């Protein structure tokens, strides 16, 4: 059996992507034969016990793996709520038609949810007895789009009351936002549950910031089971949306000799300084050419040293991702395909075992 490893007098079931319940085998060596006359009878009895133990343990392992593998499925709501996906897409489409920034906002919400204790809808929770994720450093005055998820959740509740988690609504809304902005679509694996609580400390610890260097970015994504290639593809989400001047002011100042270690086009840096002025809250597009279209313009900008954030330009700064950035800049279809695959992988992590979960009725508070 794959991953089943047996050692003398010690047995352990190992699996690369899941923590299995402990399995109890009875090695024959542990059977003591107290009297020569009873050796044959005792050996037969102990052999039967050991065999039975192995069978039960293997059945438990198979059962556990089956549950893990079936936890998320593209068909999870086919019978539970067949009207779900059209309902969510309609809600997102209305929001994007009213404000194209809403699409980017929803997409970024999904990233920030999955990077903190798994994809559990915790980023949507308002502060409770303990401070939640909304006020964490990487999220405060940055994340938005909560009202879009509220509307999509209301549509889901109208179609199938109490059946659909906020985490699944967010996963579907992110896919639909990308598609509505001209990007790829993909089949979303569903079946997530919602966390009862959020952790500001976990958000501060797990979300890479706009000043992150390439090694830190690779490490942060690797910690979530994502490769460097996934990281670069997913960073392409910055082909839509806008960022506050406080997140890139230091980078823009470097173009005027006010900072070190920044690879930035001088003309672009001057434009950013002019756009910001003295206001940290002023916004600039992450992709200055096509800020509301999901395409590969982000990567073309990086090749021209026009990445808005330091963490953006780090993907093309003489390091390991330069070749991939050039490839995506040349081939938008290649980027779109890799992005869709990486989004599926990013949506897989579940909360830690033992985390209290539910299907929230209101995404902003536990039931």
In short, what is this structure?
The protein is mainly alpha-helical and 367 residues long. The protein is built from 14 helices and six strands. The protein folds into two domains: 4-61, no CATH class; 84-241 and 286-358, Peroxidase, domain 1.
Give short descriptive properties of this protein.
single chain, 367 residues, mainly alpha, Peroxidase, domain 1, two-stranded antiparallel sheet, 5% strand, globular, disordered N terminus, metal ion binding, EC 1.11.1.7, disulfide bond, lactoperoxidase activity, hydrogen peroxide
Sheet with most strands: strand arrangement: 1-2
Radius of gyration: 25 Å
**Which class do the helix and strand fractions yield?**
mainly alpha
How much helix is in the residues? 40-55%
Q: Count the beta strands.
A: 6
Tell me the CATH architecture of the largest domain. Answer: Orthogonal Bundle
Binding site for substrate: 208
Function: Removal of H(2)O(2), oxidation of toxic reductants, biosynthesis and degradation of lignin, suberization, auxin catabolism, response to environmental stresses such as wounding, pathogen attack and oxidative stress.
Binding site for Ca(2+) 2: 239, 287, 290, 295
GO molecular function: heme binding; lactoperoxidase activity; metal ion binding
């Amino acid at each position: 059996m794959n991953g089943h490893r047996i050692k003398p007098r010690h047995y352990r079931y190992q699996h690369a992507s899941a923590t299995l319940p402990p399995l109890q085998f009875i090695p024959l060596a542990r059977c003591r034969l107290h009297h020569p006359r009873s050796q044959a009878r005792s050996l037969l009895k102990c052999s039967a016990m050991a065999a039975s133990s192995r069978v039960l343990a293997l059945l438990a392992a198979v059962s556990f793996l089956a549950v893990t593998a079936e936890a998320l499925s593209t068909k999870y709501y086919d019978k539970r709520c067949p009207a779900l996906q059209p309902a969510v897409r309609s809600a997102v489409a209305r929001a994007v038609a009213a404000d194209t920034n809403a699409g980017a906002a929803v997409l970024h919400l999904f990233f920030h949810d999955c990077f903190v204790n798994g994809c559990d809808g915790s980023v949507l929770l308002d502060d409770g007895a303990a401070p939640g994720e909304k006020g964490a450093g990487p999220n405060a005055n940055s994340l938005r789009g909560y009202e879009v998820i509220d509307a999509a959740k209301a549509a889901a509740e109208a179609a199938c009351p109490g059946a659909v988690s906020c985490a699944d609504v967010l996963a579907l809304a992110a896919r639909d936002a990308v598609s509505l902005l001209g990007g790829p679509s993909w089949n979303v694996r569903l079946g997530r549950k919602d966390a009862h609580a959020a952790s500001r400390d976990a958000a501060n610890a797990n979300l890479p910031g706009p000043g992150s260097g390439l090694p830190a970015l690779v490490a942060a994504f690797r910690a979530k089971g994502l490769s460097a290639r996934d990281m670069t593809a997913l960073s392409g989400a910055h082909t839509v949306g806008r960022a506050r001047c406080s997140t890139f002011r230091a980078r823009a100042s470097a173009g005027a000799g006010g900072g070190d270690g920044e690879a930035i086009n001088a003309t672009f840096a001057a434009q950013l300084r002019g756009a910001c002025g003295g206001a940290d809250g002023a916004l600039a597009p992450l992709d200055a050419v096509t800020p509301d279209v999901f395409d590969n313009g982000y990567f073309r900008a990086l090749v021209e040293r026009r990445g808005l954030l330091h963490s953006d330009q780090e993907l093309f700064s003489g390091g390991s991702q330069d070749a991939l950035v050039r490839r995506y800049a040349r081939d938008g279809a290649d980027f779109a395909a890799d992005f869709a695959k990486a989004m599926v992988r990013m949506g897989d992590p579940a909360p830690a075992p033992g985390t209290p979960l539910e299907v929230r009725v209101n995404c902003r508070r536990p039931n």
